[in-house]
Amino acid sequence: MAVKDDKLPEELYGVLADLLNRKNNIEVINSIRGEYGVLNCLSEMPQGASAGELGKKLHVVPGRMADILKSLEQKNLIIRTRIESDRRVVKAQITEKGRQVSKEKREDIRKEYEGLFRILGENDVKELIRLLKIVLSYYPDKY
């Protein structure tokens, strides 16, 4: 479908760039792909996950993932264990302290978006999510 208004793509780009570059969104994006993202993933994976599995799921390169896991381990938020059947594989698992930190961060994010939910209302939020999922399906996965 051809766009009739040739300024529309530029406007969409500008709005998305402005939205993504807002301070609170940068913090959310960084946390999703950082320590919180790892804790959130691990809280849903009772058997744990390797650095490679986490990196793929969160779109994080191996070097950055190694730094994240090291930091989380130093804070006692995860434990890393070598797999007996293949000593090359290290699984990360979340600790109780890590679960608590993840839960608190999830609550912080919820509070961050409460104002937006009040402005839009539940139906518009659902519609926004539906539209964003369509946009996401348009772009192929990077990894």
Summary of the model, kept short:
The chain has 143 residues and is mostly helical.
Per CATH, the class reads Mainly Alpha
CATH topology: Arc Repressor Mutant, subunit A
Distance between the termini: 28 Å
What's the β-strand tally?
3
The total of helices stands at 6
Q: What's the structural domain tally?
A: 1
- Strand coverage percent: 5-15%
Which sequence of strands runs across the widest sheet? 1-3-2
Radius of gyration: 19 Å
The poorly predicted ranges are none
Arithmetic mean of pLDDT: 88
**What share of the residues lie within helices?**
55-70%
Structural class: mainly alpha
Overall body shape: elongated
How would you spell out the order of helices and strands? Answer: HHHEHHEEH
Explain this structure.
The chain is mainly α. The protein has one domain: Arc Repressor Mutant, subunit A. The chain is built from six helices and three strands; from the N terminus they run H-H-H-E-H-H-E-E-H. It has helices spanning 8-20, 23-32, 35-43, 51-58, 62-74, 96-138; strands at 49-50, 78-83, 86-94. A three-stranded antiparallel β-sheet has the order 1-3-2. A hairpin with a 2-residue loop joins strand 2 and strand 3 (86-94). Helix 3 packs across helix 6 and helix 4 (51-58) crosses helix 5 (62-74). The longest helix has 43 residues, at 96-138. The two termini are 28 Å apart.
